[in-house]
Predict the structure.
Amino acid sequence: MTALRDDLTTRAAYVSDASIYRRLPAAVAEPRSVQEIRELLATARENGWPVISRGGGTSVAGNAIGDGLVIDTSRYFNRILEIDPHARTATIEPGVICDQLRDAASEFGLTYGPDPSTHSRATVGGMVANNACGSHSVAWGTSAQNLVSLTVMLADGREVTLDAGGTSDAALDSQLTQLRDRHLAMLRTELGQFPRQVSGYGLHYLLSENGFDVAKAFAGTEGTCGIITRLTVKLVAKPRFTALAVLGFTDPIAAATAAPKFRVQGVTTIEGMGSDLLDALRTRPGQENAGRELPEGGGWLYCEVGADTQEAAFEAARALPGLVEETVVDSVVVGDPAEARALWRIREAGAGIVTRLPGGGEAWPGWEDSAVPPHHLGAYLKDLYALLDEMDLRGIPFGHFGEGCVHIRISFDFNTDEGVAHYRRFIERAAELVHRYGGSVSGEHGDGRARSELLSTIYSDEARGAFSRFKRIFDPDNVFNPGVVVDPEPLDRGIRPGPGARTFELTPVHAFSADDGSFGQAINRCVGVGACRSDSGAMCPSFHATHDEVHSTRGRMRSLAEMLRGEHITDGWKSKETYEALDLCLSCKACATECPVNVDMATYKAEFLHHHFRQGLGSFVGKDRRPMAHLTMGWMPWLMKLVTRVPGSLRAVNFLERFRPIEELTKKLGGIEPKRRMIRFNDTPLTSWFKTRTKKGAVARTQQGAMARGSGRAASSAEKPSVVLWPDTFTNFSADGPGKAAVAVLEAMGYRVLMPMGNVCCGLTWHSTGQLDMTRRTLLQTLDVMEPLLEAGYPIIGLEPSCTVMLQHDITELLPEDPRAHKVRALTVTLGEFSARHAEDGGDWPFDTLETHAGPGTAVCQVHCHEKAQGDYTPELRVLEKLGVDTAVVGGGCCGLAGNWGFEPGHHEISQALGERNLFPAIRAAGPGSIVLADGFSCRTQIAQGTDAQGVHLAQVMYAALRAEK
């Protein structure tokens, strides 16, 4: 039997989904087989627990949470059992991810039609349970319409098969037939009236004209009638070619009004958005110029067309503006897939972006999924805007306009009881509004806890009585997901961000400038859309390795939220459960940009560790002391400076650690992972080498060499522009090759290289281990040393990406009131950025095209996760291109070492698994003589300890390409 996870760490991670609701489960289980599900149902019966089915947990209506046993099929019960390309069907287990199925089907030129915005992490079982749709439903329909058959398990452990024509159980068939025959008129007049009428149960599929299709009727029951154990779904042929027409209108209402006119043959999407969504997107980091590709207008429709040839697709798309000549303002038609992808990215950003309004305020689901017959959408949207204005609320509508479905997140204030009451008043009035237009309170997300109570507004007593009877036929004891659809819970019960959510809030060390200085408000950023569970991109590496919800960014955010609430996790910042949830966070910062709401878990972890442990060296002794790795790794800059006061000490350390017993003893005493090899140190710190070199007049000799290597007039040292090379701890004490190469490269380019006259450090190692008092103290000391250089305005060139990002971003969050910190932030650049700008400005370029012994230069490049997240590697790629190096960038994000994290005990297996995800295979597949490029010291260490390769820094590549003396 599968293990029950009833520990508070796991339960806290499952307390919510993508909705505003919270329910602490009694236990969580992740079955691998049908038999294990049967055993879990028996356990639930013995304990009197209700049972909640869960896939990716991306439900926005609160239908994947509950206070009983949560059965999560996404982790293990996720096999594709068969794809039949001739029948165009796939038979799968419910935990299969939508994109996983689509990728497998693409081998046969097929795809799975439903494609919600969460397609990279939503399970097909969950999609069928909610009757999800997506942008292509105008052509390919809902999940119910793409369903062939289901096998479901009932509360007594029996499996039954449902399909067109009935079920495998004669007694069920009889009861369902009686239900249908009792309500024929209602089924024909109230249900199935327009494509996105998803609210309630789809009982109209029981009609004889619909084939008595029990499988389709079961779709959309939201886990309230049984557990799906197997399903067969339809596959559709992918259009061979597509073109995209984006049409601009005066505003979203005009776009919504025009949308039904595009429901013509060949059009596969009719997606809508307004300028308010674009305004929100432009407030995000790096998105200030987003949407320049869009045509003029204040509202847009995205209409994709498929055809057998590119020419036919393009011509069909180009004809679409003619259907609305009287209202269209402008249009753009593209056939190139890359151009279409760029346009789609703007629209697809909506699901996450609209959880924050342009001014930074919070926006929440609850009324995010209403739908009306498409020809009423313009009028409904106009009235919805008016209702928002009347009730002093803001929201950004977008959605599947061609299907009459509107998504919107609204600026509800859940912090007070009055705010919650205002939420209820709005929802009730919005339900009355949608009913006036013959609409549905749900268009694809299901009713859940958000809207089940509203079914009494839009459906007759007879319809709701039929829903109740249908549930009792399958689930007579109300075991499955009680409180949803039938006998609904109040829609304002158990709101996660509601009153009482911040019992343990305190004044943080970080400024949290984007969250009004509030750690609690920062935690509220996560609404649970689950992008961190996607298998693509860099976020979240620990979830990529474990597929455990606890070790996703969302799971950690839920644990932090429960810690602040104090209801079940009662020891606040001392919580062992939250510490456990944060343990596998690599602090890679991928979530800071890839998360739609820019959650920054690295910062939250540092803040938590600061309050969880005591500060200073005294925190390493006594009760609840810090791990020793926080000393050996966190205090590394201080320890290195201490050791180097004894001449020759680093050389002695290197010599002694060549003996394995001594190395093993060092790791044991220092709290280092036993399977790791210790790093080696420079014989002499880079700063000492630089001082000695300057005293001996090496600068002058290098200038003479630069004249011979480079071109142009030699300048005196005083005439040359000055730059500051940042001597980070790793380059200074452990890997001086990049530092020495950077000095030579910069001087050859015509610059006078300076280094700070005293000890400087960005504080990174203290920050990542949550020793924030020491981080701030170190930064203040650094600013004192740097002050003359800052006043001179010299560029600060960083070599170590993590330290560079610390100076470009974190420093002002730690010292927000110190103007010198803002100067450092403004002046700090990477070597690649500085060199690319130098070349573009026409500066001297003393480099030849690089060739290796194997021929023209090629490189496999691992971009440091911090630079990928909060920097920009494009300048480095331009430099490499100018050097003639053909560079292949490794995908996937963090290398898996992540500084101190990879050296901490218990992390080695996951660290290696992450290396094997993308980095190690890319290096092994590289051709002979390929350069392995990695600017991060951690990345080069991971490469050296996980492969036979040795990584080099961009500075070393540039040095190798310096023009030979003639």
Residues 705-715 have pLDDT under 50 and may be disordered. The two ends are 75 Å apart (CA to CA).
